[in-house]
Amino acid sequence: MAQWVRLCAVEEAPQPGKVMQLEAQGVDVCLANVNGALSAMDNWCPHRRGPLGEGWVEGDRVVCPWHAWGFEVTTGNCPEEHAHVDIFPLKTEGGDVLVDIT
Ligand code: FES
């Protein structure tokens, strides 16, 4: 069952091409805006736990600021490195951005 929790207000969400690190009930989330579409993924890079929310957007990926592994915002995959981060379902409701952290 989904557990929707508030991440931030819509107006606080990153602008297109930007990412930010946020916390929702103890879960660290990387919130990205790719061409106007928001997406949420686990904030911690599976390589050496770099903070993806301090990285950047490149194409359809969030790039880790430490060693530049890029994770697709739709799948969480980094095919070149056979790595993956969890993607959190996301929705906006009543002016808030909500994520399902289950
Ligand atoms: S910690 Fe993310 S690429 Fe190395």
From TrEMBL:
InterPro entries referenced in this protein's UniProt entry, alphabetically: Rieske_2Fe-2S (IPR017941), Rieske_2Fe-2S_sf (IPR036922)
EC number: 1.7.1.4
Family annotation (PROSITE patterns): RIESKE
Alphabetical keyword list: 2Fe-2S, Dioxygenase, Iron, Iron-sulfur, Metal-binding, Oxidoreductase
Occurrences of domain Rieske (ranges): 4-99
One Gene Ontology MF term: metal ion binding
Signal peptide: none
Domain of life, source organism: Bacteria
Protein name: Ferredoxin subunit of nitrite reductase and ring-hydroxylating dioxygenase
Organism expressing this protein natively: Terriglobus roseus (strain DSM 18391 / NRRL B-41598 / KBS 63)
